[in-house]
Amino acid sequence: MKEIRFRVPDMTCGHCEAAVRGALETLEGVESVAVSLETKEVTVQSIVELDLADLMGFVTAVGFTPEAF
Ligand SMILES: [Cu+2]
Fold it and tell me: Which of 39, 47, 52, 56 has its CA 20 to 30 A from that of 27?
């Protein structure tokens, strides 16, 4: 299992969390998406190699501002 982590500081509530999670869960090869509102961290586990910039692009597309660690 591959794992990519990044931060989305502008997630503030359950709706934000659901939007970010939903955007990432639909991607091919993604096995699980864990989102912490407390730490603003997103962890994506996948069976294929995913690209950090691509993942952050999908989060940007749903209206948030992701940051690399
Ligand atoms: Cu929100």
Answer: 39
Q: What's the structural domain count of the chain?
A: 1
Distance 43 CA to ligand 1 centre (A): 18
Q: What CATH number is given to the structural domain containing 17? A: 3.30.70.100
d(C-alpha 66, C-alpha 48), whole Å? 21
Neighbours of ion ligand 1 (CB under 5 A): 12-13, 15-16
Question: Which tokens hold the place of 20?
Answer: 């970010």
Share of the chain above pLDDT 70, in %: 100
Distance 56 CA to ligand 1 centre (A): 18
